[in-house]
């Protein structure tokens, strides 16, 4: 079966919510501060609706046949102090049952195409330090380390 990447539309917000919740479940081991209720919260639902209808950024959904198996949520990122125009991959995920089948690669390819249409010259993504699988995936796709996020409990 072929992998097809489609642009989300307003009726897809619950599908994006479900796919993003899988990312939350995967990331809870990397972030003890992650609010596991956020995907179903009022703020979460509002985010998914804006993302799905294109008012916030862009969202791609990957389908294997008729099965939604992954997604990428994108937004223009304004650093202010940097010269390049950036598109941020705010979140991206592939259902664990369908990983290592080229789905993430197709989502990255669609991301690059959309970013170029926005006249962006760089992509930005943040990954958890402990999430070596994600870091390796991004590096395999040409991303490089450009900074380090640090937290301090007080």
From TrEMBL:
Q: Which PROSITE patterns match?
A: GNAT (PS51186)
Keywords of the record, alphabetical order, are: Acyltransferase, Transferase
In terms of InterPro entries, this protein maps to: Acyl_CoA_acyltransferase, GNAT_dom, N-term/lysine_N-AcTrnsfr
What Pfam family does this protein match (any one)? Acetyltransf_1
Tell me if ATP-binding is a UniProt keyword of this record.
Answer: no
Molecular function as annotated in GO: acyltransferase activity, transferring groups other than amino-acyl groups
**Keyword Membrane: yes or no?**
no
Q: Which PANTHER family match?
A: N-ALPHA-ACETYLTRANSFERASE (PTHR42919), N-ALPHA-ACETYLTRANSFERASE 50 (PTHR42919:SF8)
Q: What is this protein called?
A: N-acetyltransferase domain-containing protein
Protein species of origin: Candidatus Woesebacteria bacterium RIFCSPLOWO2_01_FULL_39_10b
């Amino acid at each position: 079966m072929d992998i097809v990447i489609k642009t989300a539309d307003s009726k897809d917000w619950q599908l994006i919510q479900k796919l993003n919740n899988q990312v939350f479940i995967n990331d809870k081991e990397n972030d003890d501060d992650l609010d596991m209720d956020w995907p179903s919260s009022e703020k979460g639902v509002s985010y998914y609706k804006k993302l799905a209808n294109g008012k916030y950024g862009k969202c791609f959904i990957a389908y294997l046949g008729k099965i939604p198996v992954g997604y990428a949520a994108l937004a223009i990122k304004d650093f202010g102090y940097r010269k390049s125009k950036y598109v941020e991959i705010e979140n991206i995920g592939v259902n664990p049952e369908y990983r290592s089948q080229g789905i993430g690669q197709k989502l990255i390819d669609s991301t690059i195409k959309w970013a170029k249409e926005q006249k962006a010259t760089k992509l930005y993504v943040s990954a958890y330090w402990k999430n070596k699988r994600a870091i390796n995936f991004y590096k395999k796709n040409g991303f490089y380390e450009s900074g380090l996020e640090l937290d301090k409990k007080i």
